[in-house]
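User: quick one, sequence for these tokens?
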């Protein structure tokens, strides 16, 4: 049995400074306080929705920041694969929280339709304008980091949707101020909530599939089996398991049936591992090589012998 720990596949996010994440956190905390105050003054549930969303974003960024720190710890005796999945756990926490926020906003939007309150459109426009600037600044800070991390990508998407929500709230404020369309406020709230839920459920599906050790979606297992069996000296493959350690690292274990006892095991193992890495992006593989003699020996083992 052999292990290959050459984790060379990377999107380049490991070298990105955490300062961007930290400054994004501070920006969102300040924005949340400002929008809550403005929402109370304006009487706008849409503005409060945006503030609540930003508060969740601040918490999400804090989780992302801590999770990235933890995920960089190397493997040890207790966590032999390392701590990389800390980022996935962080993503699950923040996405679950975001779904709860979305459901709450749906409730608030419906209530305001039936119980409308006076709204100050000017405050809606001013506050959403400030929020838009902060959201775009955060998106810019997180863009490079979001490419290789579901955890950071979740935070990035939070702020991207916030920017869109801020534009919508700004337009809503204009409609309230010049046209007296107070119904626009709860309508925007429902739109924002719907988009939050749509994006969150998509990301939580991806995150949970990795945590459940599902085979990579873009991996054709039948093709993998056929490619391995086409290698000279291989007659079969069984006990195949392929999963993702995290977004960037795939792992595999399998039993490889060899044609004869004289097969050069070292050569064959190197050839299979090289093929797995270059054709299927599997950089960590554990291969059990079985010769005909090995299989005969295993067939004589009685797992549950009879007792007199």
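Assistant:
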């Amino acid at each position: 049995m052999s292990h290959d720990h050459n984790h060379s596949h990377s999107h380049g996010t490991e070298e990105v400074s955490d300062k961007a994440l930290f400054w994004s956190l501070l920006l969102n905390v300040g924005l949340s306080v400002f929008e809550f105050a403005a929402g109370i003054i304006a009487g706008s549930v849409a503005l409060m929705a945006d503030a609540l969303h930003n508060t969740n974003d601040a918490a999400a960024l804090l989780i992302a920041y801590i999770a990235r720190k933890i995920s960089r710890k190397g493997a040890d005796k207790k966590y032999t694969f390392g701590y990389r999945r800390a980022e996935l756990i962080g993503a699950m926490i923040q996405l679950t929280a975001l779904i709860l926020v979305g459901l709450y906003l749906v409730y608030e939007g419906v209530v305001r339709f039936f119980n409308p309150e006076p709204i100050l459109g000017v405050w809606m426009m001013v506050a959403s304008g400030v929020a838009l600037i902060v959201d775009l600044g955060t998106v810019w800070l997180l863009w490079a980091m979001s490419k290789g991390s579901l955890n950071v990508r979740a935070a990035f998407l939070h702020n991207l949707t916030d920017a869109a929500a801020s534009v919508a709230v700004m337009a809503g404020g204009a409609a309230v101020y010049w046209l007296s369309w107070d119904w626009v406020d709860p309508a925007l709230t429902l739109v924002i909530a719907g988009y939050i839920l749509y994006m969150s459920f998509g990301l939580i599906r991806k995150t949970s599939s990795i945590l459940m050790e599902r085979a990579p979606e873009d991996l054709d297992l039948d093709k993998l089996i056929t490619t391995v069996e086409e290698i000279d000296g291989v007659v079969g493959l069984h006990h195949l398991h392929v999963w993702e350690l995290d977004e960037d690292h795939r792992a595999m274990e399998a039993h490889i049936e060899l044609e004869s006892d004289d097969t050069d095991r070292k050569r064959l193992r190197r050839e299979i591992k090289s093929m797995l890495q270059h054709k299927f992006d599997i950089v960590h593989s554990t291969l059990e090589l079985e010769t005909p003699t090995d299989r005969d020996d295993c067939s004589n083992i009685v797992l549950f012998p009879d007792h007199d």
